[in-house]
Amino acid sequence: MPAEQRRMVFLLSIAAAVVFVIIGILYLAGDFIPSGVHHKHAILAFVLAAASLVLANFNRAGTAARR
Amino acid sequence: MTPILATIVTLHNLATHPAAQAAGTVKITHVQAVLLALLQGVAELFPVSSLGHTVILPKMLGWNINQHSTSFLPFVVALHLGTGIALVVYFWRDWVAIVTPMLQSIQRGSMGNDPEERLGWLVCAGTLPPAIIAVFFEAKVRDFFADPKIAAAFLVVNGFILFFGERLRVRANAALATASGGASVDLRTPRPISTLTWTEAIIVGGSQALALLPGISRSGVTMVAGLATGLTHEASARFAFLLATPIILGAAVLEIPALFSAEGRPLLGDAILGGVIAGIAAFISVRFLMRYFTVGKLTPFAYYCWAAGGLALVVLSVRG
Inter-chain contact B110–A61, Cβ cutoff 8 Å? Predict the structure, then answer.
């Protein structure tokens, strides 16, 4: 994958991880949907955040090469 | 009496205490608990749909068990926990071989060429889509298709999926032989699971979502999807069970608090007993299936699904 593309994937993955963490916290707090706390949804959001971070980690090399 | 047995008996005595049998709690006998555990342990891994069987069989036997009751949830959780642990125990060498290079690749920051490492990431890619679908839609789908007649109909459909999946495999092999221009092609040469593309892994893993429909088998649809990508029966079965492990275990682990909730206490003893029996049954089942699929095909399970689904449809329709 070209370095420019890797950098884009890296940035998007980091952004996705942040969004998923926020969603997870909101689910835990019970504020995301009116029907209350949804632990399973929160855990899924954290798992997706972790997956996004792993994807970002694999595309770290592209950003390092650019620098 | 062993400590474990003593614990089970004590917990059961607690469970059958009149105070525990408050209104709204589900009561099952030991025989029912054992039969449901055996059914779960076997049917979860055989390509015949455990969900379909647990919806159909109690109705056909006239058991009045409200399986959607919150007090029944710990029992279900324990059965899945037992099944998931059995899968981990059977495939523990595979998991060590998969997880170790995965962790090393995370540390390295790049994917290597290790086939087991790639298999691990393929399992991850194939697990996320059905997990997302299950978290958001499982309850809705389960409630919508809870009717035993619908489950029986889907069991017949499952038979067609298995049967035509097998036919597709034969056709794919014939096409491969034709494409080779008559040259000698060893169709028994297995395609390694690690050569699957990301898209193929997501499709094979995502097919597990169909198993939310009672009567459609998770291992069945995953195996058929695996066969369609050119994997052998053995490789398809291995990939299907590796894909099923995090889903089954994850779903059970997420519900572990229910095991110790006040609502679940009446069934805790039976839940522990059921979990152990389901685990043993699942271990024996996966051991049998992994040997069977070295030479066996899905067709016999298709015939079973047609027969069982058809019989259930007739019996349930006659009874009204």
Answer: yes
